[in-house]
């Protein structure tokens, strides 16, 4: 009997770790959200970064990063959100497929042209990406830099202008004493200044920043 009880306890713990549900949802960016205190990076997709602009069919740039955030906010607002975890990454986030009142968020973001299928990790959303591209919607209106190329370009530019070229991440401490790190592609990166006398510092990786007690900024609500 004791063995049975112990086995059931393990099953319950594993089930709790892999599936989270709740109404307390906070959107971080176009592919990351908090559900009842647990941070989920949406599996298989890569949305434009918060400060990223994309090319439009009219020849003008539009704020695709902001549009992606607003779309997720629309999808989860007032909804019951369930996230099924596929594992975790090096930043303490769960890699998850999230559903809002029966509608999968990951798939929807790719379907409406506000995220790329993250082919580096999975082909799950490639058919939806192909369909969005053929319709010329969202990020597919015109040739646009992918989110991963956008991040790489900003990283390479930053390493040329920081004290230690291998450590361009800014570990800022806010007026409310909140430790927030800004990567080179963060929309607040250019205006963030590092003052070592206040305990602020530079980091070489996001994992280092998280391990030291800093967190990423949140761009949604």
What order do the helices and strands come in, and which of them pair?
Blueprint: H1 2-18, E1 19-22, E2 25-29, E3 32-35, E4 38-42, E5 45-46, E6 54-55, E7 61-62, H2 64-76, E8 81-88, E9 94-100, E10 103-104, H3 105-111, E11 116-117, H4 126-135, H5 147-158, E12 169-173, E13 179-182, E14 201-203, H6 206-211
Parallel strand pairs: 4-9
Antiparallel strand pairs: 1-8, 2-3, 3-4, 5-11, 6-7, 8-9, 9-10, 12-13, 12-14
List its traits.
SNase_OB-fold_sf; alpha+beta; 221 residues; Thermonuclease family protein; 7-stranded mixed β-sheet; disordered N terminus
Structure commentary:
- The structure is a single chain.
- The chain is an alpha+beta fold and about 220 residues long.
- The protein folds into two domains: about 15-145, Beta Barrel (OB fold (Dihydrolipoamide Acetyltransferase, E2P)), CATH 2.40.50; about 150-210, no CATH class.
- The chain contains six helices and 14 strands.
- Strand 2 and strand 3 (about 30-35) form a beta hairpin.
- The termini are far apart.
- This is Thermonuclease family protein.
- Keywords: Signal.
DSSP E strands, number: 14
Distance between the termini: 47 Å
Q: Helices and strands, in N-to-C order?
A: HEEEEEEEHEEEHEHHEEEH
The CATH C-level name of the largest domain is Mainly Beta
Q: Bin the strand percentage.
A: 15-25%
The largest pleated sheet is described as: 7 strands, mixed
CATH architecture classification name of the largest domain: Beta Barrel
Oligomer: single chain
Could you tell me the mean pLDDT?
A: 90
Q: CATH topology of the largest domain, which one?
A: OB fold (Dihydrolipoamide Acetyltransferase, E2P)
Instruction: Name the overall outline.
Output: globular
Radius of gyration: 19 Å
Q: Which spans of ≥5 residues are poorly predicted at pLDDT below 50? A: 1-17
Overall domain count = 2
| Helix run count | 6
Quickly give the structural class: alpha+beta
The percent of residues in helical segments reads 25-40%
Domain TNase-like: 18-142
Protein name: Thermonuclease family protein
Pfam families: SNase (PF00565)
Keywords: Signal
């Amino acid at each position: 009997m004791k063995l049975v009880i112990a086995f059931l306890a393990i099953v319950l713990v594993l089930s709790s770790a892999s599936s989270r549900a709740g109404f307390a949802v906070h959107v971080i960016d176009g592919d990351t959200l908090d559900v009842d205190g647990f941070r989920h990076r949406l599996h298989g997709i890569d949305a434009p970064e918060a400060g990223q602009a994309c090319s439009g069919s009219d020849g003008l740039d539009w704020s695709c990063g902001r549009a992606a955030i607003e779309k997720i906010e629309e999808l989860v607002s007032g909804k019951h959100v369930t996230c099924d975890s596929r594992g975790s990454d090096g930043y303490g986030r769960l890699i998850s497929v999230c559903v809002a009142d029966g509608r999968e968020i990951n798939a929807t973001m790719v379907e409406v042209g506000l995220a790329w299928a993250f082919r580096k990790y999975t082909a799950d959303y490639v058919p939806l990406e192909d369909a969005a591209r053929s319709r010329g919607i969202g990020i597919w209106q015109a040739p646009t830099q992918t989110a991963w190329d956008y991040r790489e370009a900003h990283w390479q530019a930053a390493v040329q202008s920081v004290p230690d070229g291998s450590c361009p991440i800014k570990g800022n401490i806010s007026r409310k004493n909140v430790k927030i790190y800004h990567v080179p592609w963060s929309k607040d990166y250019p205006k963030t200044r590092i003052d070592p006398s206040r305990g602020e510092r530079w980091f070489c990786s996001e994992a280092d920043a998280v391990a030291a007690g800093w967190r990423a900024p949140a761009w949604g609500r």
